[in-house]
Amino acid sequence: MEQKSIFSVISPIMVGPSSSHTAGAVRLGLMARNIYNNPFSKVKFILYNSFATTGFGHGTDKGLLAGILGYQVDDSSIKNIFETVKNIEYSYDYIQDISRHPNSVDIIIDDKMTISGDSVGAGEIRINSINGFNTDINGSYDTLLLMYKDKPGMISTVSEIIQKQKVNIASLHCGRSSKGGQASMYIALDIPIGDDVVEKVKNIKDVYFVTNIRKLK
């Protein structure tokens, strides 16, 4: 019988012994990279529960770092990612918290953005919080994310910009810290939007962060 390496696992095609702990970790890192969408020099990973206790043996630490650096789940470089990283400061903390998913992580980038997510099995992931705002983003759709000052008409203004490009909105979610306070909106799209659409949204008054999150491969 042919023996398979622990770094050759089928469904999903990936590097690593566990779809939840390795492929899911890479995809969480990739999604965090897509959300932040800016150069960065520092990243901290806070691993929870099963990620914290068994992640080291399953390559979770390598997968998270590789993902945020832009590597795909099937890239053999993941195995030696610590030897290839340059000009990026990275660190890990390990916590047990029964309120969190068994395979959960907070990814803190440049001390500016905290992205929290879970690896939910078979390589699938879910981003459930960005800078304290609740989300439910799984990488299946291109998604426009913006943060802004809460005020009337923002949803219709952004929706109109998208619809003028003949792009269908699959779903739209928004939340706010308080009336007139900080707010967030994320919009799942059936097809990608262009940079011109993103620029138009950026130019809306009181919008202070916009990113176009590409869906995961």
Summarize the structure.
The chain is of the alpha+beta class. It is built from six helices and ten strands. It is 27% helix and 34% strand.
C-alpha Rg (nearest Å): 18 Å
Structural class: alpha+beta
CATH class of the largest domain equals Alpha Beta
Secondary-structure element string: HEHHHEEEEEEHEEHE
Report the β-strand fraction as a percent range: 25-35%
**Oligomeric state of the chains in view:** single chain
Q: What spatial form do the alpha-carbon principal axes imply?
A: globular
CATH architecture of the largest domain: 2-Layer Sandwich
Please mark out the parts with pLDDT under 50 across 5 or more consecutive residues, or reply none: 1-20
Helix content: 25-40%
CATH superfamily of the largest domain: D-3-phosphoglycerate dehydrogenase, domain 3
Overall number of strands: 10
| Spatial order of strands in the largest sheet | 2-1-3-4-5-6
Terminus-to-terminus distance:
32 Å
Tally of distinct domains: 2
The average pLDDT value, as a whole number, equals: 89
Structure description:
The chain has 217 residues and is α+β, with helices and mostly antiparallel strands. The protein folds into 2 domains: 19-137, D-3-phosphoglycerate dehydrogenase, domain 3 (60s Ribosomal Protein L30, Chain: A, 2-Layer Sandwich), CATH 3.30.1330; 142-213, 2-Layer Sandwich (Alpha-Beta Plaits), CATH 3.30.70. Helix content is 27%, strand content 34%. It has 6 helices and 10 strands. The protein has helices spanning 19-36, 50-58, 60-68, 81-84, 154-163, 195-202; strands spanning 42-49, 89-95, 103-109, 113-121, 124-130, 133-137, 142-149, 169-176, 182-189, 207-213. The strands form 2 sheets. It has a 6-stranded mixed β-sheet. The protein has a 4-stranded antiparallel β-sheet with strand order 8-9-7-10, with helices on both faces. Helix 1 (19-36) runs parallel beside helix 3. The radius of gyration is 18 Å and the shape is globular. Mean pLDDT is 89; it is low at 1-20.
